[in-house]
Amino acid sequence: MNMKTIILSFLAVILITMNGAAQKHLKTNQKLLISSVPGLGSFTAGYSYSPVTLNGKKINIQQIDGALTMPVVNRMKEGKLDFLLAGVSYSGLQLSGTGTQFGGTRFHAISVPLAFQKALSPKYAILASFIPTLSSDLKDVSGEDMIYSGALMLKVRVSNNFNYSVGAAYSKQFFGSVIIPIVGIDWNITDKLNFSGTLPVSEKIKYQLSDKSAFGVNLDLGIGGGSYRLSEKMNSDYLQVQQFSSTLFYEYAISKKFVVAASAGYNFTQKISQYATDQKIDWIPFNNLDDRGAPSAELDKTGIIVRTGIHYRF
């Protein structure tokens, strides 16, 4: 998982995956007045690996992530879907070959994402989400390790083949506040070709080879990036991770609910930087992160990235 602001990844799941499940249900169950929508619950897990060589030294950047999402409320009535989703997610970063320049080699982010949708009509719905996250090296856990994110969006169902969402996302990171307008898109261009994404964060175009397999291109932009608080021995500095990658992916459906995937590509931007607590810039991206000054330590190297993952929907 690219270490971007955690809310942005979660929004991509909510706006695209959940919407797709709902639209499929609408197509096949239009005669039902009150029902629930299958596929809103999910479990995902992934692993990525990016090797680089910097100043003759081999460095490995490994990331592991997992997320469980459960529908607490799931109600479809007369074409209008209301839901409340709750879950837990984990994202870990492990470095090798960097020594102790960042105060350690393992960093963790544990989140409890919540998302609520209220349908105004079969065409319009309001979506709100809130994600508190504990993000640090876990060496001296406290309230200072917490970061918070949220979003508010209007979802519009234009047709069975095209849906979009507009709104804004906000995240309070250790390096400052991130606020960006976002647009979610889910467009079935043809029976086999689909374009989806949460602009300007991530975009994906997928071609369905068969009922079981698909391939495509994925673009991930690390708007602001993710951040971790370091221990008091490191003066409670923070680590910021920024990645911008483009990958080719392949997916195979073992069953209707279970999908495995593999991808490979390139990180056009890959930075791991350490900053002092007071080196902050608010209202990113409207203000330049470079204005906070130089980091005390930094790994700045592009390179290849490979990733494997699974997705189970229930």
UniProtKB/TrEMBL annotation:
The organism encoding this protein is: Olivibacter domesticus (Pseudosphingobacterium domesticum)
Q: Which domain of life is it from?
A: Bacteria
Matching entries from InterPro entries are given as: DUF6268
Segments forming domain DUF6268:
56-272
Tell me the protein's name: DUF6268 domain-containing protein
